[in-house]
Amino acid sequence: MQSVAQLRPGEKGIVNNFTNEYISLKLLEMGVLPGTEVEMRFAAPLGDPICIRVSGYDLSLRLEEAATITLS
Amino acid sequence: MSNAPLHVALVGNPNAGKTSIFNLLTGMNQKVGNFPGVTMDKISGTFRENGAAANVIDLPGTYSIYPRSMDERVVFDVLSDKNAHDFPDKIVVIADASNLERNLLLFSEIQDLGLPTILVLSMLDVANRSGLNIDLRALEEEFNTTVLTVNGRTGEGIPELKKTLFEDLSGSTELFYDINELSPEIIPVIKDKFALENDYVAYQYAQQTYSKSFLSNDEKKFIADKKVQYNFCDRQFQTTETVERYKIIRDKLTRIVTKTDLESTATRNHKIDKILTHKIYGYLIFFVILFALFQSIFAWAEPFMDYIDFGFAKLSSWAKTYLPAGVLTDLIAEGIIPGLGGVVIFIPQIALLFAFIAILEESGYMARVVFLMDKIMRKFGLNGKSVVPLISGVACAIPAIMAARNIESWKDRIITIFVTPFMSCSARLPVYAILIALVIPNDYVFGILSVQGLALMALYLIGFLGAIFSALLLKKILKMKEQSYFIMELPIYRWPKWKNVWITIFSKSKTFVFEAGKIILAISIILWVLASYGPGEAFDHAEQRVVEQNPTVGIGSQEFDALLSAYKLENSYAGVLGKSIEPCIRPLGYDWKIGIALITSFAAREVFVGTIATIYSVGSDVEDESTIKDKLRAEINPYTGKPMYSIALGVSLMLFYAFAMQCMSTLAVVYRETKSWKWPLLQLIYMSAVAYIFAFIAYQLLK
């Protein structure tokens, strides 16, 4: 199954579910909900963290955290 | 109704424009205080409307009432403790109009707590420009609340907000999302036990049992038992609650917001980000900004600091001349005034540093620095967010350590707090300055680079390396199974609001002077007593002894006074202490005179220069730096017969001051922030040990 961490800059995906309960709570609060569209924007110069666009704003998170968001 | 002021709490997402509105409401009438029981500064302010007073608390920015950092913990505490004396009568939720959905999550939670709430939309202009059309009447109806709009830049809407705050607002009686669906049994039990009226407040007692500071241990245990009994699963319930709230919000928003245009702000923002987070330019720009920061702190602040220094020296001599001679005057002139001067002198640097940080934060750039640095910092057990305390530490560790509060992970936060004092703060600068001038030749390499300047830079670098390698060490030692995470909004870029920058400078400087001032003042009084009084006959008959030893010097002459004060210091309590530690510091190349300076400057480093000045009998003439330098240069090491201030001693002392934890105020702040003596004591022992070892190696290699 594909996760947000695998998206390339400019690619979009629809959030399906989460694999980590603790992180998912924070993500949910930030508006990353199942069924929401996310777009990979850009990565920091060392490749990590990354910036995604979700529900109208830019959210930065680490790759390992992005990997817990599965896409449908 | 009595004349008690109205209590208003401001709540909102980070970057929602809360601070601007707080500043517009209260202006300079702000103060920082402590919440009882919570180690958290409370920023509050006042305003008057038609003769009635209102007291406004600015609560930390948060995305929900479920806390994740020290900062956020205070939000629910304040909103749910009805017995607190400043329990808010009205809540203002500030929401960024260009990001309504996420901002309304917090609003819906706050509204469910059942307090009279006003929804204030900020940044409506930004939202309109990016093509969002918000039907304010529909918003009021759908969310069952009063909606106002405020422009944080122009202040438009503030008079209406002030007026509305004094009007009668009833709290919403109906729950936005009914949590009874999740756990119907536990809510009546908690409501009954704590005499609560609101279901959602009761539910939050169960959700946030352990972070609530006003509950006793018995009360916490009661709730914990009931949670087990009724099978209350915090996280699962929180997940369901959040998802359900968003569902309702999204549904309502389709009837409120219409979209006409493409996201122009986002596109512009994206273009700026492409440059500022670029592989090469990104770091380049960051280093240019850091360089400007250092330049401003050290070059621009200097003339102001000189004026302040001069002013306090004048004040001190004025006090000596015009106040009646006596112990009290001496204490004022030699203890209190210089002590206060030692605090006030740092205001220009603190003010400039906070101006820089305020501008970087206001413009949205600080979030990018955090984003750029996260990966590097992570390798050392830190976090992108540790960058802010580390940079602030260059001015002063006290506000820097307080800035670590927004780091969510406790382990990352404790490591950041632990290593921040290694950053070379402004108090080390006077010590470095005089030692470099003494032992480092005033030469140039390649014709342009000053060797003395390079030495100073090297000391800052050493401090930074000390910080990150200590962090690495702690990362290996601290065994904590805590998930470190980094999920952070990158706000849109915007021009800083200068009013906000001014207010930040003003309020932070004020806090620094009063918080650090109290401690430094107390220490300077103690030091003055230790240096002015001594045990036994040797001290009591000081004048007689000096006459005996120097029969040629006329009593009352300047030279005699200098000899007398040197003699008195040698035999004072401070002198006795200095001599008693001499065997211990001899391997570092120090004698008892430096020993006194070491002891006195354990309270605060900058005391070193003043102490050394007194010890070498320059009297109170601290202003004349060349005199101190000449005296130090002339000092002969009694053991070797060579100049005392050799390169070996100089380097050893500089390294000692670079590493040692010589700052009581920092220790006090670490205690306050970690709520235990364990961390400040470990820090004191560790940093002193590192300082001793490096000073020892340097002296033994170079002598």
TrEMBL record, chain A:
Database matches in Gene3D superfamilies: 2.30.30.90
Domain Ferrous iron transporter FeoA-like: 2-72
Domain of life from the UniProt record: Bacteria
Keywords for the protein's UniProt record, in alphabetical order: Iron
Signal peptide residue numbers: none
Pfam families referenced in this protein's UniProt entry, alphabetically: FeoA
InterPro entries, A to Z: Fe-transptr_FeoA-like, FeoA, FeoA_core_dom, Transcriptional_repressor_C
Name recorded for this polypeptide: Ferrous iron transport protein A
Species, as recorded: Reichenbachiella carrageenanivorans
Automatic annotation (TrEMBL), chain B:
Record keywords: Cell membrane, GTP-binding, Ion transport, Iron, Iron transport, Membrane, Nucleotide-binding, Transmembrane, Transmembrane helix, Transport
Compartments where found: Cell inner membrane; Cell membrane
Bilayer topology: Multi-pass membrane protein
InterPro entries cross-referenced by the UniProt entry: Fe2_transport_prot-B, Fe2_transport_prot_B_C, FeoB_GTPase, G_FEOB_dom, Gate_dom, GTP-bd, P-loop_NTPase
Gene3D superfamilies: P-loop containing nucleotide triphosphate hydrolases
Pfam families xref list: FeoB_C (PF07664), FeoB_N (PF02421), Gate (PF07670)
Residues of the FeoB-type G domain: 5-171
Transmembrane segments: 280-301, 340-360, 380-402, 414-440, 446-474, 512-531, 647-671, 683-702
Role description: Probable transporter of a GTP-driven Fe(2+) uptake system.
Similarity comment text for this entry: Belongs to the TRAFAC class TrmE-Era-EngA-EngB-Septin-like GTPase superfamily. FeoB GTPase (TC 9.A.8) family.
Annotated protein name in UniProt: Ferrous iron transport protein B
